[in-house]
Specification:
single chain, 496 residues, alpha+beta, Methyltransferase, Cobalt-precorrin-4 Transmethylase, Domain 2, Heat Shock Protein 90, 4 domains, 6-stranded mixed β-sheet, 4-stranded mixed β-sheet, 22 strands
């Protein structure tokens, strides 16, 4: 069943009426839907909130409901219950209930003006992370009874296994939408083109396929809910969805090395998947180019390899923390570097981003985008960035965990002599990891090639290797010798 709507008390959205009609058709009450007429004792309501919240999670429902105004025969008869007017111990009913529930959950009473009478609907979110308790006791709905959860250890164990943190992707960006409106809001052509699938002939057929990928959820009354996942990936205009509008990718151009000198800023309009190719093209057109002398002509080439830009932008989009409100991914273009940042600390220590398989807060998104060919299956994206930087003789990329923000920086070309010691050590470590992942140890010779240093200056590279060892980042391999010795990352086992 779909989650609660965006409407408050004293309004009668069509969705609430549709919900009531569906509930009245149920052959019997479920563990997550309860009917009452005029029984609204405060202790009963508190117990039901706990029981139905836990039962909804156990039954994989986003919300549970208590509806006043439906009798035991499922006839809509109306109710006298006025939640806003009820007082308990000199406190408003909702406040009294909220103080006795743990954790705090966003339950809501809604007036529903049905053609057959006035009803009251209590919408109860499913338990998240921990069980929902009333007066420090967790309850569960079983049939028409509301026992203590602890009295049913098997069901309690099943519930505990299903409790999990909120998954942003499964949230609802737009509720109770007709099939035709889904087609207007989402870039359906992009979805089917990227997925290399034929487009069904009917709107309902299209929506059914989108629901398989959790782009949509089926709602009541033959309508649909557009998920956060669907909106962020395939929106025709992200601004149409209030709760994700700040998540559009921003591209900011600066004419000096300072953020204070912004000369142009643009925010993306399309969803990430629908607009990815256009976004990369837009960024690349604004990056500097250098002239390479060919056999007869000077040929302009990009300073930054496109593969590196693609991978860094894709990582920022996919691995961001959507729970951080008011912030989204950003590309800052400076004369000497490109910074790609996203909200949320990395889930892997930054030095191990090169070799560790990626961990994402947004697994459903990552899996879908891998299938659509937008990101890497095996987690080799950062490896490709490092390799492209080495092949282009760029300064070593930098990855910084800034607490609530992750920043990846791609630098322009820089000679070995112009690099700082920190850059040389970082480049040495990155090169050593890339060589190890290819089952090849790093040597003075390979590092010289990476930095573009002549053989006669091999002692300079030896000094960098020593500094990197002293920093605890690399070590001699088991096949090391004074002539042509191999080095491995400090965390690595021997070469196979």
């Amino acid at each position: 069943m779909a989650p609660g709507s965006r409407f408050g008390m004293n309004k009668t959205p069509t969705r609430e009426v549709a919900l009531v009609d569906e509930f009245a058709k149920l052959p019997s009450e479920t563990s997550w839907v309860e009917f009452k007429v005029n029984n609204y004792r405060p202790e009963l309501i508190g117990t039901l909130i706990s029981a139905i919240s836990n039962a909804a999670r156990l039954n994989d429902e986003r919300c549970g409901y208590v509806v006043w105004g439906i009798d035991n025969s499922h006839n809509i008869v109306g109710t006298k219950f006025q939640p806003a007017a009820e007082m308990v111990q000199d406190q408003p009913l909702e406040f009294w209930l909220a103080r006795r529930l743990s954790p705090s959950i966003n339950f809501r009473f809604k007036d529903v003006h049905h053609t057959k009478g006035r009803l009251v609907m209590l919408e109860i979110p499913a338990a998240e992370q921990v069980t929902t308790k009333f007066e420090n006791i967790a309850y569960l709905r079983i049939g028409q009874t509301t026992p203590k959860l602890a009295d049913f250890p098997v069901r309690e164990a099943a519930l505990l296994s299903k409790l999990k943190p909120f998954v942003w992707e499964s949230g609802v960006a737009r509720a109770f939408v007709q099939s035709a409106e889904v087609i207007k809001l989402l870039d359906i052509a992009a979805y089917f083109t990227l997925g290399e699938q034929p487009v069904p002939n009917t709107d309902d057929g299209i929506c059914s396929i989108l629901a398989h990928d959790k782009i949509l959820f089926k709602d009541v009354g033959g309508r649909w809910d557009i998920s956060n996942l669907g909106a962020i990936l395939f929106a025709k205009d992200i601004a149409e969805f209030d709760n994700i509008s700040r998540k559009a990718m921003r591209v900011i151009e600066h004419d000096t090395g300072s953020r204070a000198t912004t000369i142009k800023e643009r925010s993306g309009k399309l969803g990430y998947a629908a607009g990815f190719e256009g976004l990369i093209e837009y960024i690349n057109k604004r990056l500097p180019r250098r002239e390479v002398i060919g056999r007869a002509l000077r040929v302009p080439q990009p300073v930054y390899p496109e593969i590196a830009i693609r991978e860094l932008v894709a990582n920022a989009l996919i691995h961001q923390d959507f729970a951080i409100s008011g912030a989204g991914p950003v590309v800052d273009i400076f004369p000497d570097r490109v910074e790609v940042s996203n909200p949320g600390a990395p889930l892997v220590e930054t030095r191990r981003l090169i070799d560790f398989p990626p961990r994402s807060r947004n697994e459903t998104m990552a899996a879908l985008l891998r299938r659509l060919g937008m990101c890497e299956e095996q987690g080799s994206g950062i490896d490709k960035v490092i390799i492209a930087a080495e092949e282009g003789q760029l300064a070593p990329p930098d990855f910084q965990d800034e607490g609530y923000n992750m920043r990846a920086t791609l630098f322009a070309r820089k000679t070995f002599g112009a690099m700082s010691q920190e850059e040389r050590v970082r480049g040495c470590y990155q090169h050593c990891v890339i060589r190890y992942l290819a089952n090849q140890g790093m040597t003075n010779s390979t590092l010289r090639q990476r930095f573009g240093v002549a053989e006669r200056n091999a002692s300079q590279i030896s000094r960098v290797i020593k500094q990197t060892q002293e920093a605890g980042l690399i070590k001699p391999s088991d096949v090391w010798s004074s002539r042509g010795g191999h080095y491995l990352p400090s965390w690595a086992s021997k070469l196979s």
